[in-house]
C-alpha cells in the first residue's frame, strides 16, 4: 500500500506529550516511523526518541529545551494546554495556551525544513474568533513572550482565560499561513469537540456534565476519545495534507455545522 502520510524518519516535536491528545499523537507518530521529540511538564510514559521536561509557563524553560532539540525538524505539534479557571488562573492559561505556543513555534520555524508543517490544538471554544478579532490582533501584535505576557497582565478583562487563548490560536494560525507559505511551511489548527481526557474533569468544574453535553457534545451523542483528535492532527501535518494551510479544522462530528446553520445555539 502506498504510504501517503510519509512520516518515516520525519522529525516531530510534540508538546503536551504526557497525557490525552498529545500522548495519543506521540503513540501514532512512533507507530508511523517518525522520530519523536516529546515535551511536557509531567513525566512522559510513551516510548519516544527523546523526552524533555518543559514548563511552558517559563520562557527560560522553553529556550533551554529548544537549545537541545535537533538543528533541523519537520513537524511541530502544539498539543499542550490548560483548561482555565478554577484550577488555573486566566493569566497562566493564556501563557501556556498561546504565549508559550507562539514563542516555541517561532523559535522552531527557522529549523523547520521546506515541506514541514505546524499543527496546534485550539478548541470549539475559539470558534467565535472573528467576533473578537480586533482584540486578538492587538494581542498578537506583541513582539515576544515578555510583551505578550505583559499585555495579558495589563488587560485581564480581555485576556480572560481559555476562550481568549483559543481564539488567539486561530488568529495566529490565520496570520502566519501566508508568510510561512513563502518558506514552503504549512500551519493549521484543529478544534476538538469535547474529548474524554484528564482535562474533562476540569471543564466539568465550571460547566456540569449535563450542561456540557447539552451545549457542546457532538450530535453523534458521545464525547470523542483522544485518538479521534490525534489522528486528524497527524493527518494535518502529513504529506497527504501538503496543500492545506491556514485552516481551523473542526473535528466535532457535525457540532459546528449545526451551530453555523442555526440548528443549535452556541454558548461561545
Ligand atoms: N479534552 C477536551 O475536551 C478538549 C476540547 C477542546 C480542546 N482541548 C485542547 O486539547 C489540548 C490537549 O488537551 P487534553 O484534552 O489532551 O488534556 P490533558 O490535560 O490530558 O493534556 C494537556 C497536556 O498539557 C500539559 N501541560 C499543561 N501545562 C503545561 C506546562 N506549563 N508546561 C508543559 N506542559 C503543560 C499537561 O501536562 C498535559 O500533558 C489542549 O490544548 C486543550 O485545551 C481539549
Would you count the extended β strands for me? Answer: 7
CATH superfamily: NAD(P)-binding Rossmann-like Domain
- Gyration radius over CA: 17 Å
Q: How far is it from the N-terminal to the C-terminal residue, by CA?
A: 43 Å
Supply the helix-strand structural class. alpha/beta
Bound molecules: nicotinamide-adenine-dinucleotide
Q: How would you classify the quaternary structure?
A: single chain
- Helix-strand pattern: EHEEHEHEHHHEHHHEH
Overall number of structural domains: 1
Q: What does the overall shape look like?
A: globular
Number of helices: 10
CATH architecture: 3-Layer(aba) Sandwich
Mind telling me the CATH class?
Alpha Beta
Strand order in the sheet with the most strands: 3-2-1-4-5-6-7
Largest sheet: number of strands, sense, barrel closure:
7 strands, parallel
Key features of this structure:
Rossmann fold; binds nicotinamide-adenine-dinucleotide; 7-stranded parallel β-sheet; alpha/beta; 268 residues
Describe what you observe in this structure.
The chain has a 7-stranded parallel sheet with strand order 3-2-1-4-5-6-7, with helices on both faces. The protein has one domain (11-260): Rossmann fold (3-Layer(aba) Sandwich). The chain starts with 10 loop residues before the first strand and ends in an 8-residue tail after the last helix. Helix 2 (59-68) packs parallel to helix 3, helix 3 (90-108) packs antiparallel against helix 5 (145-154) and helix 3 packs parallel to helix 6. The longest helix has 20 residues, at 162-181. It has helices at 20-31, 59-68, 90-108, 133-140, 145-154, 162-181, 199-206, 209-216, 227-236, 255-260, and strands spanning 11-15, 35-40, 50-53, 73-78, 112-121, 186-192, 248-251. By secondary structure, the chain is an alpha/beta fold. The protein binds nicotinamide-adenine-dinucleotide. Nicotinamide-adenine-dinucleotide is lined by residues 16, 18-22, 40-42, 54-57, 79-82, 96, 121, 123, 192, 194-195, 197-200, 226.
Amino acid at each position: 500500500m502506498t504510504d501517503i502520510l510519509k512520516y518515516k524518519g520525519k522529525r516531530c516535536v510534540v508538546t503536551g506529550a504526557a497525557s490525552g491528545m498529545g500522548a495519543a499523537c506521540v503513540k501514532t507518530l512512533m507507530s508511523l516511523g517518525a522520530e519523536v521529540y516529546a515535551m511536557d511538564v509531567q513525566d512522559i510514559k510513551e516510548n519516544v526518541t527523546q523526552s524533555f521536561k518543559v514548563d511552558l509557563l517559563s520562557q527560560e524553560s522553553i529556550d533551554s529545551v529548544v537549545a537541545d532539540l535537533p538543528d533541523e525538524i519537520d513537524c511541530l505539534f502544539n498539543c499542550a494546554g490548560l483548561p482555565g479557571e478554577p484550577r488555573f488562573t486566566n493569566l497562566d492559561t493564556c501563557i501556556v495556551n498561546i504565549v508559550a505556543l507562539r514563542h516555541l513555534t517561532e523559535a522552531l520555524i527557522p529549523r523547520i525544513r521546506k515541506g514541514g508543517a505546524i499543527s496546534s490544538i485550539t478548541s470549539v471554544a475559539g470558534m467565535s474568533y472573528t467576533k473578537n478579532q480586533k482584540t486578538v490582533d492587538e494581542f498578537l501584535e506583541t513582539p515576544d513572550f515578555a510583551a505578550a505576557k505583559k499585555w495579558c497582565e495589563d488587560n485581564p478583562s480581555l485576556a480572560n482565560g481559555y476562550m481568549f487563548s483559543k481564539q488567539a490560536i486561530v488568529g495566529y494560525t490565520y496570520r502566519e499561513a501566508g508568510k510561512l507559505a513563502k518558506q514552503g511551511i504549512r500551519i493549521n489548527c484543529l478544534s476538538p469537540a469535547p474529548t474524554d481526557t484528564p482535562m474533562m474533569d476540569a471543564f466539568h468544574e465550571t460547566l456540569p456534565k449535563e450542561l456540557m453535553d447539552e451545549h457542546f457534545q457532538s450530535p453523534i451523542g458521545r464525547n470523542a476519545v483522544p485518538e479521534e483528535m490525534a489522528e486528524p492532527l497527524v493527518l494535518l501535518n502529513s504529506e497527504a495534507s501538503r496543500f492545506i494551510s491556514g485552516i481551523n479544522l473542526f473535528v466535532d462530528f457535525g457540532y459546528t455545522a449545526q451551530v453555523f446553520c442555526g440548528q443549535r445555539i452556541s454558548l461561545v
